[in-house]
Amino acid sequence: MTRLLFVQASPRGGQSQSNQVAETYLTALRAANPRLEVDMLPLWETDLPVFDGDKAAAKVNVMLGQEHNTAQKTAWGQIVEVANRFIAADRYLFAVPMWNSSIPYRLKHYIDVIHQPGLLWGLKPESGYFGLLENKHATLVMTSGAYSQAFPSPAFGVDHQSGYLRDWLNQAGVTAIDEVRFQPTMLTQDPAGDFERAKAAATKLAMAHGRVCAGE
Ligand SMILES: Cc1cc2nc3c(=O)[nH]c(=O)nc-3n(C[C@H](O)[C@H](O)[C@H](O)COP(=O)(O)O)c2cc1C
């Protein structure tokens, strides 16, 4: 059984174009693999623990191999609970709008909570970071209003959205990554047509992925 975690980074729910393109991908993936187990994670409707001083101290203590005090133990327990849900997935589907060249802060908050030593990554003084996640796959559905890979940058914006997500996932050990872009959503003569083309690309990708998942 393949388990997919659907991370929704837009607060716009059903109006969100990244969510809608990702939903199209998910519908096609489910059709190809009816046994797919889906865990929905709408980040703006999900309580995330505040990443406070106790959490930062707990993280550093794990890196240094030191004991946690009582407050840090509680803090680390909250981190592990959120991270374990992420770790339990085989596949990830991210729906992410560009916000100020980067990702919505709610997704950054989530990453700050789960991206932890001993859970998602390790660090060797001689060779650097290594990811602890294995055999995972991520699909990134990304939107932006003005930015497009086809337009001059920085005039139409700079892409710290896909680069950041890919670098983070790579550091955690997720290197199999595909993407669907609906960019730009606003600065186009044909927003409706581009939206349909993005959904068609999402369906095509899901059908290719579905063949892999169904062959489990
Ligand atoms: C707070 C905020 C910041 C944004 N920053 C950018 C940006 O830097 N570059 C850009 O091209 N679009 C930007 N946009 C536009 C959104 O990326 C665009 O409308 C996208 O389609 C929204 O996706 P959604 O429908 O999934 O929420 C921003 C939108 C908001 C609300």
Protein model, in words:
By secondary structure, this protein is an alpha/beta fold. The protein has helices at 17-32, 53-64, 70-87, 105-114, 162-172, 191-214, and strands at residues 3-8, 37-42, 91-97, 121-124, 128-131, 137-143, 176-182. It has one domain (3-214): Rossmann fold (3-Layer(aba) Sandwich). The strands form two sheets. Strands 2-1-3-6-7 form a five-stranded parallel beta sheet, sandwiched between helices. Helix 1 runs parallel beside helix 6 and helix 2 crosses helix 3. The relative contact order is 0.18. Bound molecules: flavin mononucleotide. Flavin mononucleotide (FMN) binds at residues 10, 12, 16-19, 97-101, 143-147, 157, 185.
Quick synopsis:
The protein has helices at residues 17-32, 53-64, 70-87, 105-114, 162-172, 191-214, and strands at 3-8, 37-42, 91-97, 121-124, 128-131, 137-143, 176-182. The chain is of the alpha/beta class. It has a single domain (3-214), classed as Rossmann fold.
Listed once per kind, the bound small molecules are: flavin mononucleotide
**What is the helical fraction, as a range of percent?**
40-55%
Number of domains: 1
What is the tally of beta strands? 7
The run of helices and strands is EHEHHEHEEEHEH
CATH topology: Rossmann fold
- The quaternary organization reads as single chain
> Would you identify the regions where 5 or more consecutive residues have pLDDT less than 50?
none
